[in-house]
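To illustrate the input format used throughout this study, we show a single complete record. The first block contains the structure-token representation of the backbone; no residue identities are included at this stage. The design step must infer an amino acid for every position from geometry alone.
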């Protein structure tokens, strides 16, 4: 019998690739997605994606999604308290492994492992240290589709927001920008792929700038 685990899901392409990797595992079974949302906007934190689109992803993959709610501008203490409460519930159900789509940010990995250890849980990183150019090429070859929902304008110009991540997109990335946006250069929303039973249709809505970040509102059709 496979070990039940929970996947910390952002809705973006790295999450999708890591989840796809786990779907092929004979050791683990993902039993739920866990996503952080900002209460005031009812959107995925950092990505700015509507809650409805999160639920459409979960439905397309036939997975339940559990939500962690934080306030706008939440401190680390608030985030950790809310996340800890959600994770403790999994622990009570004898689920003690949480998977993430992180690739190479060592400080983030240490942070996640430390917080989980305090709850008697452990972290799993299915695509850790994989070459990011290889990863994004695999993503496209597998038939995944993803649209940028947020960019950091200090790294990318405005034309990169609301674009599908395809080989043309990758060829236009400036030097020094990670192909997977692992340094926070861009975030994405995955709308199709081998784990989805149907493509999620969206249209591009208003583009809003907040500090140095540009968000494209993706609207479900």
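Output of the design step:
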């Amino acid at each position: 019998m496979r070990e039940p685990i929970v996947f910390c899901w952002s809705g973006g392409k790295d999450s999708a690739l890591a989840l796809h990797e786990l779907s092929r595992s004979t050791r683990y079974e993902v039993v739920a997605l866990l996503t952080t949302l900002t209460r005031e906007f009812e959107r995925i934190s950092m990505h700015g994606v509507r809650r409805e689109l999160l639920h459409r992803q979960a439905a397309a993959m036939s997975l339940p999604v559990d939500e962690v709610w934080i306030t706008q501008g939440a401190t680390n203490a608030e985030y950790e308290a809310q996340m800890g409460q959600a994770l403790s519930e999994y622990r009570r159900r004898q689920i003690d492994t949480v998977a993430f789509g992180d690739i190479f940010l060592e400080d983030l990995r240490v942070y996640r492992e430390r917080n989980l250890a305090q709850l008697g849980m452990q972290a799993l990183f299915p695509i850790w240290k994989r070459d990011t150019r290889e990863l994004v090429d695999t993503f496209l070859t597998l038939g995944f589709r993803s649209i940028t929902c947020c960019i950091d304008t200090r790294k990318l110009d405005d034309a990169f927001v609301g674009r599908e991540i395809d080989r043309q997109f990758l060829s236009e990335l400036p030097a020094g920008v990670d192909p997977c946006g692992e340094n926070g250069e861009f975030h994405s929303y995955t709308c199709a792929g081998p784990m989805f039973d149907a493509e999620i249709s969206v249209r591009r809505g208003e583009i809003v700038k907040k500090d140095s970040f540009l968000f494209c509102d993706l609207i479900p059709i």
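Structural context for interpreting the output: The chain has a mean pLDDT of 97. Residues 76-92 form the longest helix (17 residues).
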